[in-house]
Specification:
CATH architecture of the largest domain: 2-Layer Sandwich
Mean pLDDT: 92
Structural class: alpha+beta
Helix content: 10-25%
CATH superfamily of the largest domain: Bira Bifunctional Protein, Domain 2
Number of domains: 2
CATH class of the largest domain: Alpha Beta
Oligomer: single chain
CATH topology of the largest domain: BirA Bifunctional Protein, domain 2
Number of strands: 12
Strand order of the largest sheet: 1-2-3-7-6-5-4
Largest sheet: 7 strands, mixed
């Protein structure tokens, strides 16, 4: 077990820090059967980082790659709600280090800085546990992504090392996790909507079999996207969102 280099660290959460891993989510999968207490896993470099739907996630040195391995204290069907808690925690961490930028959250699990992707979140159930993978572009960002990306450094953010960012993120998440554990999804949903990009605007949702246009009305009690077109509301459980 490693000692956090940041003075901020939530009680009851462990930390394992590596120079290099294939991916922090993969390491979480390897540890899931034996690790019972919440554990953050981080690596300076990932050689096979992954995003949603198996997409590659670039993890150059200087960016944050971390996964929280946790056994949520609510039923399995509610675990996906922690994606929204993680997004809030990440957005607030990013706002602390790049206060001049506007940080928002994009359904289902991205964080935007001035409208460009600065962080992504990947949830995976691993046996009795949940792996919450979070990648944050602190110092660098890819230039060839379908949805434009950005880094905190490019947004004029303060110089920040990954351990500093992780310390703030871990504290933020621990607070929101306690809210979710005690009060359920409703306060998480409200906090997420208060930071939501594109709310009330016309957006495009890419689904596995089609694209759906409509006004982004919000998310329902389970976190599904609500799109309204011609007076009809469509509930979307999974997809990718684009603006404009």
């Amino acid at each position: 077990m490693n000692t956090p280099s940041s003075g901020l660290w939530p009680a009851g959460y462990g930390l394992k820090a590596y120079d290099e891993l294939d991916s922090t989510n993969a390491e979480a999968r390897r540890l899931a059967s034996t690790q019972t207490a919440p554990l953050w896993i981080t690596a300076i470099r990932q050689t096979a980082g992954r995003g949603r739907r198996g997409r590659a996630w670039e993890s150059p040195s200087g960016n944050l790659a971390a996964t929280l391995l946790i056994r949520p204290e609510r039923p399995l069907e509610q675990w996906a709600q922690l994606s929204f808690a993680a997004a809030i925690a990440t957005a607030d961490m990013a706002a602390q280090f790049a206060p001049q930028a506007r940080m928002t959250v994009k359904w289902p699990n991205d964080v935007l800085g001035d409208g460009r992707k600065v962080a992504g979140i990947l949830l995976e159930a691993v046996g009795p546990s949940l792996a919450i993978g979070i990648g944050v572009n602190l110092a660098a960002y890819p230039g060839d992504t379908e949805f434009p990306a950005i880094s905190l450094a490019a947004l004029g953010g303060k110089p920040i090392l990954p351990p500093q960012a992780l310390g703030v993120l871990a504290q933020n998440f621990a607070g929101w996790y306690e809210v979710w554990r005690a009060d359920g999804f409703a306060p998480i949903r409200d906090a997420w909507l208060a930071r939501a990009a594109g709310l009330g605007q016309r957006i495009r949702a890419r689904l596995p079999d089609r694209e759906q246009m409509g006004i982004f009305e919000g998310i329902d009690a389970d976190g599904a996207l609500l799109l309204t077109e011609a007076g009809r509301t469509t509930v979307i459980a999974a997809g990718d969102v684009f603006f404009g």
